[in-house]
Design brief:
Oligomer: single chain
Number of domains: 2
Structural class: mainly alpha
Low-confidence stretches: none
Distance between the termini: 109 Å
Strand content: 5-15%
Number of strands: 2
Order of helices and strands: HEEHHHHHH
Largest sheet: 2 strands, antiparallel
Mean pLDDT: 82
């Protein structure tokens, strides 16, 4: 009987060892999977951020895009269109209007270099500065169009929010 008990005890120990090893392997696999998915999510987040930057730049300046590779890292070239030139001309008009306060300056060199991310960043930062000044200075607010209307005009040509006095001051026909 004792021999049978020892065999049974050994068998039970082996079962517990197997179960413990199985649990350890499952936990290790789950940990690996979690780390892998976390890294994948951060890469996906980075790809989404990059694609948003491309999308904003393309949409703001009506650029065509030539895709050389659509796998990360993206290899694309931006190509100016007729609409791009129209947006840039309107931006130049607005930059002359705000020349004395140095807001909405037109980055001629950056545009000539076709660095469209830098152009878009310059545009976005200029608008943010103009909005901040408009919000904080009531005298400035009374003497200039709303920055949202300026942005709409530059990007679309819509003059709806800019009254006729400002339009003539800006040199708009």
């Amino acid at each position: 009987m004792t021999k049978l008990m020892r065999q049974l005890n050994t068998c039970l120990k082996n079962i517990w060892v197997m179960i413990t090893l199985g649990v350890i392997l499952i936990l290790a696999g789950l940990t690996y999977l979690e780390v892998y998915l976390d890294n994948k999510e951060s890469k996906d987040d980075e790809n989404v951020r990059i694609l948003n930057a491309y999308n904003t730049t393309v949409n703001n300046f009506y650029l065509d895009v030539a895709y050389y590779s659509n796998e990360p890292p993206l290899d694309v070239a931006f190509v100016k269109t007729g609409y791009t030139d129209e947006v840039l001309e309107r931006w130049q008009l607005v930059s002359r209007y705000y020349a004395d306060i140095n807001y909405m300056a037109y980055p001629e060199e950056v545009v000539q270099e076709n660095d469209w991310f830098a152009v878009n960043e310059f545009f976005t930062n200029s608008l943010a500065g103009l909005r901040r000044l408009y919000r904080e200075d009531t005298e400035f607010q009374a003497s200039t169009p709303n920055p949202d209307d300026i942005e709409r005009f530059i990007l679309t040509g819509n003059r709806g929010g800019i009254n006729e006095d400002y339009q003539s001051e800006m040199g708009l026909e």
